[in-house]
Amino acid sequence: MIDRRRFVDHDGNWVFVSGNNAAAEARAQALQCRYFVEDDEDEQVDDVLRSCYNCGYRRWTSSSFHCLAIKPATTN
């Protein structure tokens, strides 16, 4: 399950609080996430496949990313 404590709501976008330089945390979060889907290979940035940084539901911001999977998880 997605640990929403690792994200903060910014105007409806759930932003990863650890930013874009916390691979270990992004990997740990992805291991818990049932919504993880592998992004296209050319869009992957982490050497470990199962990472939020490599997820198809991730959208980059200037300092982090927001997760598109959290919305459906909270509206079900």
Number of strands: 4
State the end-to-end distance. 13 Å
Q: How does the major sheet shape up?
A: 4 strands, antiparallel
Q: Widest sheet: strand order?
A: 1-2-4-3
Shape: globular
Radius of gyration using CA atoms only: 11 Å
Characterise this structure.
The chain is α+β, with helices and mostly antiparallel strands and 76 residues long. It has helices spanning 23-32, 70-75, and strands spanning 7-10, 13-16, 58-60, 65-67. It has a four-stranded antiparallel sheet with strand order 1-2-4-3, with no helix packed on it. A hairpin with a 4-residue loop joins strand 3 and strand 4. The model has no long low-confidence stretch (mean pLDDT 91).
Question: Brief description of this entry?
Answer:
By secondary structure, the chain is α+β, with helices and mostly antiparallel strands. Helices cover 21% and strands 18% of the residues.
Write the layout of secondary structure elements.
Blueprint lengths: L6 E4 L2 E4 L6 H10 L25 E3 L4 E3 L2 H6 L1
Antiparallel strand pairs: 1-2, 2-4, 3-4
List keywords for this structure.
about 20% strand; about 80 residues; 2 helices; about 20% helix; alpha+beta; globular; 4-stranded antiparallel sheet; single chain
